[in-house]
Write a structure and sequence with these properties.
With about 150 residues, the chain is mostly helical. It is built from 4 helices and no strands. The structure holds zinc ion.
């Protein structure tokens, strides 16, 4: 009987790594955190990064799969409610932290900590409210055929 040719040690591992690199493992949480398109999880939603004056600029269509992000006219109006919820959560958490850590300080200390935090967090609140709106309330789901495999 003839034995099949023996593979060198490590060849199997190399083949497994090559297979893994060709597969795309979708991660909804990672795509949301990075601000990627919900359908291909490859194209960016926003034109620029969150730090800067153009943090609101958003692509109308996905640069990879051409999905129109505004699913219907006024779709992102709903993001205001998401933004409101996120802002309230931030303010309540910060207010609670100031209350506990500062042992109920004066009112101006609350304002001195909460107001700048609110302003600094607004680009992220704006972006993530839109991202959550797209991922949770739009009838769009990940489709592997649109994913950029690189
Ligand atoms: Zn896309």
């Amino acid at each position: 009987m003839e034995k099949p040719p023996q593979q060198k040690k490590g060849t199997k591992r190399l083949i497994r790594i090559q297979k893994m690199s060709n597969q795309y493992t979708p991660s909804k949480i990672k795509a949301m955190a990075q601000g990627k398109c919900p359908r291909c999880q490859s194209g960016k939603l926003f034109c620029h990064n969150a730090i800067g004056t153009h943090f609101m600029d958003m692509h109308t269509h996905c640069p990879v799969c051409d999905l129109q992000f505004e699913i219907e006219p006024g779709f992102f109006w709903g993001a205001m409610y998401v933004s409101y919820a996120i802002t309230c959560a931030i303010l309540l958490i910060l207010g609670g932290a100031v209350l506990v850590i500062g042992n109920n300080p004066d009112f101006w200390i609350y304002m001195a900590i909460i107001l700048p935090s609110f302003v600094l967090a607004s680009p992220f609140t704006y972006r993530y409210s839109r991202i959550l709106m797209l991922y949770w309330f739009a009838p769009v789901h990940f489709e592997e055929r649109f994913a950029r495999k690189s």
